[in-house]
What does this fold into?
Amino acid sequence: MARILIAGCGDVGATLGQSLSAAGHTVWGLKRQPAGLPPGIRPVAADLTDPATLTALPPELDAVVYSAAASGFSAAAYQAAYVDGVRHLVAALRATGQPLQRFLFTSSTSVYAQHQGEWVDEDSPAEAESFSGRCIREGERLLAASAWPTTVIRFGGIYGPGRTRLIASVRSGTATCPVGPPLYTNRIHRDDCARVLEHVLLLPQPLPLYLAVDDDPAPLDAVLRWLARQLGVAESPLAPAPALKPGAEVRGAALRLRASKRCRNARLRASGFVFRYPNYQEGYAALLRAQAEGTAPPSAPGV
It folds into this structure.
């Protein structure tokens, strides 16, 4: 059994940690306030942006999963989470001579600059100009330069329990279908995110990079109309696409326009991974059932 540290142990990390612990691995979860971590995950109170707090890491670690997320949508927040945090943790691990056999980094498909509906995979250029994409790519490069075997996993938009913003927007009538060519979206259920990490962590010889998205890079308007039918509400109306200024940082609908691409998961599939929710219909149907039964947690940001 392995000794595993999950650095930045939030929602996905906690789901991963519970599964690893149930399988017999020894798991630590590092976060600023780890008191709320679920049973089976040993707490490590530390701040990845503060090197002074990283001096008491668990010894003799076999693997690290870096799953930190930015605290907000700003250049400073992304720099702190994906560049400074990585640099500080690598330095702390080196200082204690950790014998790591595996280092996983949770990245994002936002590192791709393609936004005209192109197909992308692990061999496509990742040259996003946004601060978010640049910072995440720098985090990838920092780990690739470390002495440990590293695998980067670029996730699509994560949805799932507590991540039901899109459902809420359709239900409230605030969602809109952009006019123009199809705007392709890529997503993955929260539970499959954790399962991908566990799968890759336990592979005998993982490749350096995987895209983690479900089987269906779906046009946004198709997703919105499907949700409207399930909810029994009016379909989301058409709306002009938001104007994008060259080089400007954007969020929300405008960000989705810039991110229109179709991500392939063939490499992940070929490694033996099987999705629990292979498309948005199955994933969102499970969420809608949970909401109807009153078992869904409060909504948080997410697709």
User: Anything to note?
Assistant: Residues 244-257 have pLDDT under 50 and may be disordered. The two ends are 35 Å apart (CA to CA).
